[in-house]
Prior knowledge:
alpha/beta, seven-stranded parallel sheet, six-stranded parallel sheet, 43% helix, globular
Amino acid sequence: MANIAFILNKLPDGGVERVTTSLVTPLTDLGHKVYIFVHCLCADRISEGELPAQYVMLPYEAWDNRNAAAVCEGVVRHSIDVFFSPLIAPKYIFELKNRALCKVVFVLHSLPFYEKKETWWRINNRKVSSLGAWLSKYLIAIPKYYLGYYDRKIAKRYRYIYKNTDAFATLFDDYSRSVASAIGVGDIENSKLYTLQNPMPRIDYTCENVEREKRVLYVGRLSRRDKRIDRLLMVWERICHNFPDWELSIVGEGEDKENLMAIVAEHRLPRVEFYGFCSNPSDYYAKSEILCLTSDFEGCPMVLLEAQQCGCATMAFDCSAGVRELLSPVWENGVFVPNDDIEAYVEALSRLMDDDALRRKIQQNGLESVKRFSVDKSAQQYNALINRLL
């Protein structure tokens, strides 16, 4: 079969990393040899023999183009046939294709044009400490945003990636259509655009006879830029006194943790606990009633799939087609409300917390719905693409 490689910055880390590593075993079972090019490997968080992959260490962070020589040398030394680059597109991956060292696949592990949302975050949070900074923000950056400058810039980048890779993959067909429209691809069927759905890792866990606690759960990176856990705290402030026997548990680490803890202290929010990083949060999912996501944007949020797999009811803001795909139909497989509508989120979460029968229905339906995203199905999609490229 083939020698294939994935490039990551750190292991273990967030959703992209969990998705990638979950593919290693099924792809190996299909006969492929898997390598992971990685900059930071936290060996103490990875069990010995956990992954049947070989690691190739990078001298710099994965997106740093100074890795070019090391990556090219590693590709040649290990006879890599197909090189997958999830989310990041450093210049050196294009060198791999242009030098015909291997086939190159870029995987957009988020919703198309997520970069525009990140740009808007940076603009909004830019400090205005001088007249020049004020002019730059309000007379240049903001007008450029509304006049579509960043849309055109991102579309240009996507066109470049599409031209200089052998395949451009997205997480859902709807995302592929969006990219195709942006870069001018008319015939998707005969293009280099592919759909590679995120896999739901196999877990040896049963939810039967598990006694759930009255807990609203958040699992993920503590980052205000995209995850917006501050919005979850706003919701909790509105409802916590109506549900005195419920608690809010926040599992994860990130740059916004201290600020979030300060909000809890300042507003004296009761029954909020921070539990830090957890490499396998299955116990939290299985013992919680509801998993809440309050992100401003998401591609295919793995926490929703993981929670459903553990029989936890799930809800989120309607921030992408991916979220709608995972939680539809609403009030059947999950719950989503209009993005940034705090009042709607408060009402929906209150209803879910107050109605035991409704929660049980959503929990049971979620267990069935998540089977669409089996790791074996995803591995077969990757395998088909590898065979087609070779």
